[in-house]
Every structure is written in C-alpha cells, then in structure tokens.
Amino acid sequence: MTGTVYGVGLGPGEPDLMSAKALKLLARARHVAFFRKKGRTGRARTLAGELVPADAVEFAMEYPLTTEVPLEDPRYNRTLAEFYDGCTAHLAAIAGGGEDVVVLCEGDPFFYGSFMHLHERLITRVPVEVVPGIPGMAAAWTASGVPIAWGDDVLSVLMGTLDEDVLVRHMESADALVVMKVGRNLFRVRAALERAGRAQDAWVIECAAMADQKVTRLADVPESHVPPYFTIVLVHGQGRRP
Amino acid sequence: MTGTVYGVGLGPGEPDLMSAKALKLLARARHVAFFRKKGRTGRARTLAGELVPADAVEFAMEYPLTTEVPLEDPRYNRTLAEFYDGCTAHLAAIAGGGEDVVVLCEGDPFFYGSFMHLHERLITRVPVEVVPGIPGMAAAWTASGVPIAWGDDVLSVLMGTLDEDVLVRHMESADALVVMKVGRNLFRVRAALERAGRAQDAWVIECAAMADQKVTRLADVPESHVPPYFTIVLVHGQGRRP
Predict the structure, then answer these.
(1) Which of A105, A134, A163 lies at the terminal end of a domain, its last residue?
(2) Which of residues 22-61 of A touch B (CB under 8 A)?
C-alpha cells in the first residue's frame, strides 16, 4: 500500500478558521512537512501549533535562499529546483513506504503556494490530495470590515513584486484589487496606486486573522514603513448594490 | 444586551470544508437565516443540513425576483432594495431582542455574496461579525487538480454576466482567470475566451466540492450545454516555477 501526500490548506492564521477536514488530517498525522526560512519556526508550522500530534515525525523544508540571489540569476532557479526535487524525493519515500504525510500550507495550497512546486513533481509518483483553505486575502477583506467585490465587479489579484507599469495597467482596469507579497514593495505598490488614481481608496492589512492584525488606510501609513512580507493591500469594488 | 448578526461563510459545499468557527456557531445557533429562491430549499440551507439545531428558528429570505425583471429596469433595484430592507429589519429586531442570528452564506460572505447587502444595512444598527469561508473558486481549482496561479501571475476574477468586450479585454491581459456566474452565459464566456485566444486552456467546473462535481475541458463541453448558474470557468496561470 502506498501512502498519500496531503497538501492541507490551514487558512489565514486563526486556528478556528481551519476546516474540519484539515483538523482531522492534522489530528491523525504521523508525518508532517512544512516550509520555513532557515533559523525560523515557519509560519505554517506556527499556525498548526499543538494541533500537530506530539509523536508525529516532522520534516522541515528549509528554503536554500530567499533574497540573496536575484530572481533573474540562473542559479536561483537551479538552486530552488534542486531543493524542491530533494523535498519531493523525501515525501515520495515516506508515501512509498506506506505512510501518509501532511504538508502544512498557509492559506490555500493552490493559490500562489510553495506546495505547488512539490505537487507537480509528486503527482506522477504517489497519490496526492489537496485540501483547500481560506486564502489570506479573504481574512484581509474580512478584517477591513468591507466586502471586496459586488455585482459585476472585476477583481484582480496582483503581486507587489510586479513591475510598476504592469501594476498601474491592472489597477486602472479592475474594479477591486488585492495586492499580495507587499512587504518592502509597498513603496512601489503605493506609487502604482497613485498613478492609477486608486491610492486614496487603498487599505493596508498586516497579519490578517492573526494576533497582531493591523488595518490601516494607505494614506495613514508613513512612507518609510516596511510592513511584513505577507501584508495585503486592498481596494474594494464599488459595484451594483440595490 | 444586544445580540450579534453573524454572517458565516460555509465554504464551497462539502461540509468537511467548513471552518471550526462556522461549525461552532451553527451548533449553538438559536436563529438561522438564509437566502433562497421561491419554492427551493436554498443552497446555503442545504449545505448546512442537519448542522442546524432542530430547535433553531429558521428565517428563509426569499428573493422577490431573479430574472423576470432585467437588471437595467429601475423596478429591479427598487424591489431588491425593499427586500433587503425587510430582511434587515427582521434580523435587527432579533438582535435587538438580545438574541444572536447566524446568516448562512455559501463560500465567503464578502466575496460577491448576497449577505453584503444586509451587512451594509445592519452595521449602523446592531453588532455584526463576519466569518470568512473557502470561496467556491478555491474548490473549483482544487477540483481541476492544477494550481491556479504561480509566482507573479495576475489573476482576474470575472463574472459571466459581463459584456463580451469587457471579458475579452481582461482575458487578454490577465495570466490566470476565474469566471463565475457562468450558467446560461457560457456561450458568451466561450466566445470571449476564443477571441482572447484562451479557450483551448479553459476548464469548466460544475458543482465544485459537491456530490455532482464535474470537471471538463471547455473544448469537450457541447455548444448547447447549459451548466448550473454557479459553474466556474478556469484558465490556470503558467507563471514562474523552478
């Protein structure tokens, strides 16, 4: 019997926002795996906390690099590909030995998640099952207290790492906006929102659904402020409402 | 003591994908409210099933119209506004009497949900709390077995009710696409995808995370097929992957 690798979405941060399915899989897990930066506990592992059984075997997958090598450098792709290949081999070996593994994923596994890099390598080798989760952006718009999109609103999800011109083009054409991976890109996101005439309607949500959640109008965020990487910027749609 | 109106996201359809928080609120609910078409059980009520306590007081909010009056007709907005006003008065009265009410919401309450029309009317009158849920689109891309967006992909969420030219413009400029409210608009969505050169990569997901889930390539869906209203069309992003 071959085991299954479960990519389990844990949602945005509040343990109570995990699905019943995620909680069941965690409770019976004998192997759990998770990504983390070197020297950190890891956000997904922190989120799972004591829901991981004390006797589960833990496999920390430590990113070999984050920002030391620029994205454009061929070494970046090569190093990461080798890293994902290694993680895949380890998880496939556990499943091949007949055991299930739960891979802890923040938010939703198939929505800009690192698990996707394991998924595409694993599916040809062992059974893989994905459990969706509440994406971080849903926690962000819930925290803002205002619905994100109405009626026929077009919602665009943008990464703060995009070129400013690309950001501006999409910010001009969509009704509602979600900008992820903001962090130290906030200055560029702000500049793009200003050029698109949307800055006055933008909100900055730090640590949505977590203890240190912070909701601020962009206009009230100092130019020099560098929010956490997973900060989300929102512009709410204003579509049809009777 | 004033009660609270809870807008509770129940997720995409599979009860196991409800959050722990939603399950707790349902289990202790004394009043539940939900939208439905006249003469139907209602999707949200069906989803909650026997999780609604047998002795809870149920308030079915029946849409006064669906497609009999065109959106452009002033009667449409007027009739719906009166309907939402009436529902709001009823819910505010329950909360005013010191009792909590759980409003059952499919997917996520703040993501194109009918609850938003109650929310904006209620917030000035009684305490309102929103519990996010897994949106239907996350169940759709999970069902497709392929991640929706990678790296710097731009994801646009479009309604099948939009004009064809608007659809084409966004389909050309985004990397990943989610088209909601497809149903009898599938012919227009297909035409727009073809004009944008994206039709060959599109998938049609009917009833994601439900018993009758169906995943089909758009190319294999007959021209004459009219899928359910909540069908979702996806085009997956092809962004950076080491």
Answers:
(1) A134
(2) 23-24
Residue A117: inside a domain, yes or no?
Answer: yes
Q: Is A121 on the interface with B (CB under 8 A)?
A: no
Test the B interface: residue of A8, A117, A154 with most B CBs within 10 Å: A154
Same structural domain, A141 and A210: yes
Same domain as A81, residue A29: yes
* pLDDT at residue B123 in the model: 98
Q: Which residue range is the domain that position B93 belongs to?
A: 5-134
Tell me whether A205 touches chain B (CB under 8 Å).
no
Give the pLDDT of residue B230: 85
pTM value?
A: 0.96
Tell me whether residues B159 and A166 touch, CB distance under 8 A: no
In terms of Cβ atoms closer than 10 Å to its own Cβ (0-12, 13-18, 19+), residue B39 is exposed
Residue (of A125, A143, A126) closest to A134 by Cα position: A143
Is the reported ipTM for this assembly greater than 0.85? yes
Summarised one tens digit per residue, pLDDT across range B125-181 is 999 999 999 999 999 999 999 999 999 999 999 999 999 999 999 999 999 999 999
Burial class (CB in 10 A: 0-12, 13-18, 19+), B120: middle
Q: Which of B15, B34, B8, B20 is nearest to B132 (CA)?
A: B8
Q: Is residue A240 part of a domain?
A: no
Mean pLDDT, range B34-45, rounded to an integer: 94
In the block, residue with structure tokens 């579509």: A239
Look-up of token digits 């019943």: A20
Please indicate, yes or no, whether residues B109 and B36 belong to a single structural domain of this protein: yes
